[in-house]
Structures are given as C-alpha cells and as structure tokens.
Records
---
Amino acid sequence: MRVRSGCGILGSMAATADAVDGIQNHIGHLSREGRLLADAAQRAGLDAPVPACGGWQVRDLLRHLGYVHRWAAMYVTEGHTRWIDRSSEQEILAQGPPDEGLLEWFRQGHGALVNALSAADPSMTCWTFLEAPSPLAFWARRQAHETAIHRVDAEQAAAGLSAAAVRAQAPAAAWLTEPMPADLAADGVDELLMGFLARDIKRGTWREFEEGTLAFRAEDGAGAPARWRVESGADHGGVTRGDGPADCVVTGPAADVYLLLWNRRPAAGLDVCGRAELLAAFREEFAVTWS
C-alpha cells in the first residue's frame, strides 16, 4: 500500500503477552504466504499477466514485493524514526536482477524480512503509518497482508485468469492451492476498514459514497463472527466494529470478504442483503487495484 511522506506515526509501547503472540502469528502468516507466492510465481512463469494489477506480469509482481519487503525490513533493522522516501513504482519495476535470478532474489528478500521481524525486540521503535500496539506489531501485520494479497495475485496468474475472470468468478477454491486462513482474512478486513479507511475518513481524504450504512460480516474469522459497519453521507461518515442497523449487509466466509474488499473477487456468491447498489458504490470509491 503506497503512503505519502509526512504521514507517519512514531510510537513504542510495552509489549504484552497478547501483543507478542499476535506478532508471531503475523510473522508465521508472512512466512507461509511468501513461500506460496514464490511457488505460484514459479508455476506461472515470469511472463504471465497478473489480472488484478493492470499491466503487470509476474516479474513485476516479484520486483514490487521484493522491493517492499526490503523497504519494510530496513525500518525494523535500522530503526528509522522518520519516513525514508521510496522509489517510484516505475523505478521499482526497473530494479532487481535479471529474470534468471529474480525468483531467488524475491525469496532472499522475503526470508530476510521474516528473520528481521523474528529477531527484533518487541519494544523497538521505528516509523509506521497506521496505529498499532507497537511498531513491530504494525510491520508484521502490514507485511503479512501485503504478501497474502499478492500471493492471491500470483495464484490467479498461475491459473491463467484474466482480469475479466477475476471480476466475474466467485469460487477461489479452483485456483488457490491452499485456502486463505480465516483468522488472517478477518484480520485483513479489519486492517483495511479500521486502519486504512478509518485513517482516510479522519484525514478527510475519503470521498463518501451514496448515503447509507454498509455492514460486512465474516462468519468464520478468528473462531467467531466478525462485524464491521461503514456509514456514508453528505455530512457524516465513519467505520466501526460490531453489529447495528444497516442498509446493505454483506455476509460470507472471512476469506471471501477479504478478497472482495481487495478487488480480488466479485460479490457473486456472497450473501448481499438490502441495497446492493451501496456495495457497488463503496467498491468503486474505495477501490484497491494493486499494492
């Protein structure tokens, strides 16, 4: 996810046992999803198109994420307390080794990030860009989801899906070699809504969609149902966790809600009750195409 200079959070909090467990859980997901991504990229081949990332081939996906992993590891290992400017996406896609070494380069960067997060002091301090229990918790969570969503991209490329197919095909079982863990998916919905969307609303940079309230319900997230509500209107807007009245309710497995919100699957196959046009308007306004 691209962020702008000057939008960071510097913080350090005492590491509780729950926070440390959460960090280790995210590191475990990051490790697994990165390995699955590399395997899918190898099956797909570097020339295969990545349907959800317009114009990208698998080599671009590997260059992008290989760079991001190294960029994130830099904050963790070097403890930078201010934003360090990233290369532009055009520059990133021109970097990295030649094709014959690209997959191994990706694996090395992914492994180095996993090792950096695993070895870091839970009380370390560095720059972040979303609120979190600690900087280490932020980077472990953000990179787990960055990698998980791009693992989906690599799997879709390996399955030979087109952009049109991604927009139209609901079942992920046919092309995901291993299912997305429900706890990771529910946490990813929470990060997107309570992290990125809540931040945009707070800054006033989110253009609200059609008047109404949209609810998302993940039925199998982290062992219990997970609920979120997004309100939109001319003079108000907000996002909260929990149940409540809604004009449109979207219900389904956590993994399907996760992929829906990241534009890696359509709404078909999910239970959409009420004003479906609210969901369509929300997805158009809060569209995530690549990152």
---
Amino acid sequence: MKLRYFAWVRERVGRGEEEIALPADIGTVNDLMSWLAGRGEEYAHAFENPKIIRAAIDRNHVRPDTAIAGAQEIAFFPPMTGG
C-alpha cells in the first residue's frame, strides 16, 4: 500500500510517500494512524493529534473510522483552510 504525506505531516515524517505492508489487524484509518505513531519518533510527532489529521483513500476524503481494505493509496494531510 502506498502512503502519502502532505504539508506539516510530510515535514514531521520526513518523507512525502512510502510503500508499506500493513499488519492484518489494521482495519481503519484510525488504526493506521495509531500504528504509524508507533513506528518512531518522527511518526509519533506527526500523528500526535490524530483528530486534526485528514485522510483520503484513493483520492477520496474519508472519515477516521473508514475501513482501509482494498485501498491502493492513503494520504494524510492537515486541515485545509481557505483564504
């Protein structure tokens, strides 16, 4: 599965994207963020407040409780503001 990171999430993780194999027990976007936060200090910092991070599965915005089964790409980004 491809993971993509944008804006300050990318800066904190230290990369824009990566390919990973997820453990079988990761079922939702929330599960994935929790798992990522345990991957190291940079991920813990990026995902320290998962309630404000937005996600998209295969370029469609989704809620944190959305199942990730069958996803090809999941993107994470901070809240967007207009201006």
---
Amino acid sequence: MLNRNIETFIGCETEYADSRVVLYGAPFDSTTSYRPGTRFASRSMRAESYGLETYSPYQDLDLTDAKVFDGGDLELCFGDTEQALSDIRDFAAGIVRDHKLPFLIGGEHLVTLPAVQAVHAAYPDLCLIHFDAHTDLRDEYLGAKLSHASVIRRCWDELGDGRIFQFGIRSGDRPEWYWAKDHTHLQKFTFFGLDDVIASLKGKPVYFTIDLDVLDPSCFPGTGTPEAGGVTFNQLLNAALRVIRGCNIVGCDLVELSPPLDTSGASTATALKIWREMVLCLEKPFIAPETI
C-alpha cells in the first residue's frame, strides 16, 4: 500500500508528543532591504538535508537518536507584516506552552522578533545572544519600525538594557554603533569575550539567534546583504556549540539564507551543517518555564 509523501528534515521524524526540539519554518522576506529570497530557505534546507549525513563526527551524535519534530513551514501573509509576525508568535507560543524548545528557520531576520516575544512571555528574565554581520539596531528603516534592519532594536524594546549580547558585527549605521554602547553588549568582528558572556548568563534563559551572514561571503555567498570580513565556518560552529553547551537555551533560530543567490547549493549545505550540529547539541536538558 502506498503512503503519503511527507518530507521532513533528515532524521527529524519524532512525533510531536515525544519531541524535545520543534523545528518550524517562517518563509517571510517582505522587509528585506537589498536582495530577497530568504523565504525559500526552510523549504530548500528541508529538501537538501538529505544530502547530509545524520551522524556528526564533531560531536559523536546522530540525528536518528534525537527527539526532533519538524512542524513544517508556516503559511504567512506576505502583504501584511504584522499578521505574519502574529502568526509566528502564536505558533512559537504553542511550542513553549508544551514545554518544548522552538527552533525557527527563517526567512529574514525580522522573524526572530515574534519568536523572542513568545519565549519572553514564558521566561521573563530572557536574554538574547546574537551572531550577525549587522547591528540591526536602527529604530526604523525607510520609515518602518518593523524591518530586518531594526529587529534587534525591537527585541531591545521587549527585553531592555543588559540582556542583549551581539558578536561578529561589522556593519551598521553610525548612530547604531553609538546607541549600542549604552544599551547592548556589542563585540565587533569576532567572538572575543563570548566565554565571559556565557559564564555571566549561567542559569538564565537564553534565546540564541544566528544570522548566517555573520559568515564571510567567501564561504557563504547565499545571503541578501553579504558583508566582507566575516568569520569562517569552523569559527561559527565552535562559537555556536559553546553557546548551546554553556547556556540554558530555550529558543533559537537560523535566518537569512537565500538559496536563489547561490545556485551552487554551497550556502544551503553550509547552513545545514550548522543546523545539524545545533540540533544535536540542543538535545541536552533545558529548564522548562514553570520551574524557573
């Protein structure tokens, strides 16, 4: 007898009730300021994941042993940014209510905002670790408060001073850099000081967002706003695993892969390898909201 063809990320066939980590795609890029295409990231990653081994030689772990549910891609309204963000927020909130860890695949970076809002509602002392090429701290971009260029500023509206830690940043408007000095911890260019931040956040709930353009475009050209001078794959992988191992991660995301901008598939493959290692590392226990 034939069965329906249901495509999931490779190794992510656990039923929702038995899962610890829940993947969901947010195919949205309506506020992209330069080159669009990130709406295709989650779909492309899911399909291309079958070119990836489930086994990680980095961690001696295998996706076939992980408890990960693939919730598929949300159907989002491209003509109404606030409605799209509301739908993401509601979906993430449901995952958190069920005491599972939401892992969002973007999409442009603005999709991080509703995910952070949903997690923050459950974890009032939430902190944010942010890897990116860009500050994303504009108060508005071309008159819009809701933009991928202002997403971390909107997260600051939610979290306030002393809770946002930014690394790898190498691009931004001058006022953003000056504003960051008073309101966020911002490390230019590198992951220097990351271990000290991880130690300072011990026991606190942390949302971890990775804009993949933190990578140098020489190894990751498939993104809408590439910036020279980025980190290498190994540097990003090492830093990401340090964050996940050292922090109580209660939500996370990978954003800003734009598959149409790298038809070789190399950028998608790079994103997938970071994704696999993050998923496997996230299998460690985290503190559910009712016990914090």
